[in-house]
Automatic annotation (TrEMBL):
Gene3D superfamilies: Hypothetical protein af1432 (1.10.3210.10). Residues 104-309 form the HD-GYP domain. SMART domains: HDc (SM00471). PANTHER family: CYCLIC DI-GMP PHOSPHODIESTERASE PA4108, CYCLIC DI-GMP PHOSPHODIESTERASE PA4108-RELATED. It comes from the Bacteria. SUPFAM superfamilies: HD-domain/PDEase-like. This is HD-GYP domain-containing protein. It holds the Pfam family HD_5. InterPro entries: HD/PDEase_dom (IPR003607), HD_GYP_dom (IPR037522).
Length: 362
């Protein structure tokens, strides 16, 4: 399969990886043949990339670090909890929600079990979902990314669970913000901006009232918008005054936000997102944690369509954990746009190809 921007997808193409609704259920499943109506509808729903079947890349299959069942269970748990908090005002006033902590402990235990089995795989967030599902899928992606960093740092089981619960629920305070402010395309007023920013404190207050959630997990909600140089909110904390869990969640939050389509912009490629993060190390983010994070994320994920400095176009068939910017690429297209007579692969890490670089993701 190969991943393409939806502008390059055409009627008759067949979906190779399912597209999901906000609650984790399938909108369009693998094997569905796309029509013009389907493509237009996907664009309306905010889908900007798709995985498409292709005879030259049928053996190229991106590996997720967690199983589909694990992801669905996690998204479903986040969806049910968040929508309950949004839709039932009386629930918001309870001091503790029944089974709240145990539900998310079970969810993250499944995530960390999957991650522990796949620690050699670079993270490729390959799930595709409708724009309205961003809030719920984003929480799961942030938990996955945070869990990868926690494992890399050698956290024990208690630390992993504290970090994971905090990462799954770091944005829970947004359930208290009027929904019309979430994705506003126009600039917010000063009062509206303060209301949105207060979600960090709302989230902290919700989580610390749960008898089976650690207060350090709650600090992920409170501090995930703090920045290393003190430019964040709500308390303008600096460097190590920000809890390490929150510093990890902050990196994961921004990375996944960048690589996801938003109402006001298209998604960034993983390479552009990682470049942005690295440029802000020790100003916005803890550089040491950022280095750990970037060592475990695929800059050019398997199945990505890329253009090389030679002008050739190909699909990433394998990634190299020793040099994440030098994957193996299956060449499909000549510089003049014509198809190659026979697809072939080049390993950009090998000496004979070292002069060739990837210039952009298509």
């Amino acid at each position: 399969m190969r991943k393409l921007h939806i502008s390059s997808v055409k009627p008759g193409d067949v979906i190779a990886k399912s597209v999901f609704l906000e609650n984790g259920n399938v909108l369009l499943g693998m094997g569905v043949e796309l029509s013009s109506r389907y493509i237009d509808r996907l664009v309306q729903l905010g889908i900007d990339t798709l995985y498409i079947q292709d005879k030259h890349t049928e053996d190229i299959i991106p590996e997720d670090v967690i199983r589909d069942e694990t992801r669905k269970d996690a998204v479903d748990a986040v969806y049910k909890t968040m929508t309950t908090l949004m839709d039932q005002p009386q629930v918001k006033r309870r001091t503790s929600l029944p089974d709240f902590g145990s539900t998310f402990q079970k969810v993250f235990r499944e995530i960390i079990t999957d991650l522990s089995r796949r620690r050699d795989v670079l993270v490729n967030l390959s799930n595709l979902h409708v724009l309205d599902g961003y809030f719920f899928h984003h929480a799961v992606n942030v938990a996955v990314l945070a869990g990868v960093v926690g494992l890399a740092k050698g956290y024990n089981q208690q630390q992993l669970m504290e970090l994971g619960i905090g990462a799954l629920l770091f944005d829970i305070g947004m359930t208290q913000v009027p929904k019309e402010l979430w994705n506003r395309k126009t600039e917010l007023s000063e009062e509206e901006r303060k209301r949105v920013q207060y979600h960090t404190e709302d989230g902290f207050n919700i989580l610390r009232s749960q008898h089976n959630i650690s207060v350090v997990s709650a600090h992920c909600a409170l501090q995930h918008h703090e920045r290393y140089d003190g430019s964040g909110y709500p308390r303008q904390l600096t460097d190590k005054n920000i809890h390490e869990y929150a510093r990890i969640v902050a990196i994961a939050d921004v990375y996944d936000a960048l690589v996801s389509p938003r109402p006001f912009r298209s998604s960034y490629s993983p390479s552009d997102a990682t470049e942005y993060l690295f440029a802000t190390g020790n100003s916005f983010f803890d550089l040491d944690l950022l280095k750990v994070f970037l060592q475990h994320v695929a800059i050019y994920p398997v199945a990505s369509t890329v253009q090389l400095s030679t002008g050739h176009v190909g699909v990433v068939s394998n990634v190299n954990s020793l040099a994440v910017n030098r994957p193996t690429v299956r060449i499909l297209q000549e510089p003049d746009g014509s198809a190659v007579a026979s697809p072939y692969e080049i390993n950009l890490y090998e000496k004979e190809w070292m002069s060739i670089t990837i210039v952009k993701t298509l």
